[in-house]
């Protein structure tokens, strides 16, 4: 028989027109594509079934020939929404719900939407040298963005003057309108462009921001970079993003770029550098000066050191909480490229001793 329209609507073949109508109403409300979680394919399928079963002639044809019958379009109904009155979806149609339930997410939620307005989040970047990233630093950022007007403190009114209720939205911050569409009457809400969603208008506008409450100008922002931050991490500065009139500012996200050190490498909370030592010092032991981020430190190279051995300076690494990691010195033995005659004789003697 092709498509089973009764099964699609979840009704029996003996179902009355009222039962079919109620079943359609329930499924159409559930699957409407403009509703959160809706399904366009299922909605069209449900509508197709209703178009056939709600029409006595088409239903009779369907019961006799199936969905491939002479009035079914050869492969199922293909008439779109023609002939169906979507005003049935309004409260006046008797189905007991409002199109605002479906379209609320599309067109906002009335005055609540105006109250929940928030400035946009912004992004920028900051460059640190290696030492600044390890110990933390306070930096200043110069950024041009919409900021709260310092003259009127964001309300758009000239200092010393008052605000009055917006006559366009009656203080709601939003204006509503009703549109007639194929889906019936749809109530929409928009942010009031006269008061910018605040519901209030200044008696006299601030001369600095012209009543907008915000100004687009360069601002210097102090950024406290915590110790131990790594390359590519992002700092969030709450309320330092775009400012808007009548709502909280967005956040500013600062991406950190760290310049690598010439001799020191970070490995978690530890710092590592390589120290080249003489062959004789590796054999006999010695002391060397090592450059750390805390300044020059003395390390003792033990006798009998092998290539790849390490010396650890405790608590000279990356700060984390009340502790610090370690500074690890990797030892590299430098071999002489040329040997004097005397040096060769000495080494030959060592060779004879099995060294």
Structure description:
By secondary structure, this protein is an alpha+beta fold. It is built from nine helices and 17 strands. The protein has a four-stranded mixed sheet. Helix 2 (17-31) packs antiparallel against helix 3. The radius of gyration is 38 Å and the shape is elongated. The relative contact order is 0.11. The model is unreliable at 73-111 (pLDDT under 50).
Features:
single chain; 4-stranded mixed β-sheet; 9 helices; 17 strands; alpha+beta; 355 residues; 23% helix
Distance between the termini: 96 Å
Gross morphology is elongated
The share of residues in extended strands comes to 25-35%
Strand order of the largest sheet: 10-11-17-14
Q: Considering DSSP H and I runs of 4 or more, what fraction of the residues is helical?
A: 10-25%
Structural class given helices, strands, pairing? Answer: alpha+beta
Strand elements, count: 17
Mean pLDDT: 83
Give the biggest sheet.
4 strands, mixed
Which regions contain 5 or more consecutive residues with pLDDT less than 50?
A: 73-111
- Nearest-angstrom radius of gyration? 38 Å
SSE ordering: HHHHHHEHEEEEEEEEEEHEEEEEEH
Helical stretch tally: 9
What are the SSEs and their pairings?
Layout: H1 5-9, H2 17-31, H3 40-53, H4 56-65, H5 99-107, H6 111-115, E1 122-128, H7 130-135, E2 137-148, E3 163-165, E4 174-181, E5 184-191, E6 200-202, E7 214-225, E8 234-237, E9 252-258, E10 265-267, E11 270-278, H8 279-284, E12 286-292, E13 295-301, E14 310-313, E15 319-320, E16 323-324, E17 327-334, H9 341-352
Parallel strand pairs: 1-9, 11-17
Antiparallel strand pairs: 2-7, 3-6, 4-5, 8-9, 10-11, 12-13, 14-17, 15-16
Helix pairs in contact: 2-3
